[in-house]
């Protein structure tokens, strides 16, 4: 495992893009919702819903990481809904991907278009890397 700060953020892009695809295939996916997913030893535990309250989400994320049977290797946080993008409200999946040993997490996502009634939103355009953020979680 890399030492703290030695991981290159670009190394996360393939796993991040796979997480986006996995989220959009979630049967229970709802617009205007937040989700998290932990991985332990590279095996995902599945998507969990988060609340709209940031403080409640912080407690849930920290609690899930602390209560994991084995150390968490990856954490993905996601929001699916309308966000401000270039001065307009647009439907997007906006996500953050964190890995143990990496000082920064990858911020990424995709524009979406609504699917048919009862179906999940679909990607519209490419995989977008927005930047990086400090890894405070794992």
Model description:
This protein has 138 residues and is of the alpha+beta class. It is built from 2 helices and 7 strands, in the order αββαβββββ. Strands 1, 2, 3, 4, 5, 6 and 7 form a 7-stranded antiparallel beta sheet that branches. The longest helix has 14 residues, at 54-67. The protein starts with 12 loop residues before the first helix and ends with a strand. The model is unreliable at 1-5 (pLDDT under 50).
Would you summarize the structure shown here?
With 138 residues, the protein is of the alpha+beta class. The chain has helices at 13-24, 54-67, and strands at 33-40, 43-50, 72-85, 88-99, 104-113, 122-123, 128-134.
Q: Which residues sit in consecutive blocks of at least 5 with pLDDT less than 50?
A: 1-5
Shape: globular
For this structure, the quaternary state is single chain
Distance between the termini: 13 Å
Largest sheet: 7 strands, antiparallel
Average the pLDDT over all residues and give the rounded result: 89
Sum up the structure in keywords.
138 residues; alpha+beta; 2 helices; 7 strands; 19% helix; globular
């Amino acid at each position: 495992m890399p030492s703290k700060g030695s991981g290159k953020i670009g190394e996360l892009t393939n796993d991040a893009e796979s997480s986006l695809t996995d989220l959009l295939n979630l049967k229970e996916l709802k617009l205007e919702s937040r989700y998290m997913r932990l991985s332990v030893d590279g095996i995902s535990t599945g998507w969990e819903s988060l609340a709209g309250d940031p403080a409640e989400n912080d407690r849930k994320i920290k609690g899930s990481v602390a209560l994991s049977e084995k150390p968490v290797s990856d954490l993905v946080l996601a929001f699916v809904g309308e966000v401000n993008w270039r001065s307009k409200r647009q439907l997007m999946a906006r996500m953050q991907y964190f890995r143990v040993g990496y000082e920064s997490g990858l911020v990424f996502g995709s524009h979406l278009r609504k699917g048919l009634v009862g179906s999940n939103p679909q990607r519209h355009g490419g995989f977008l890397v927005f930047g990086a953020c400090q890894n405070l979680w794992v």
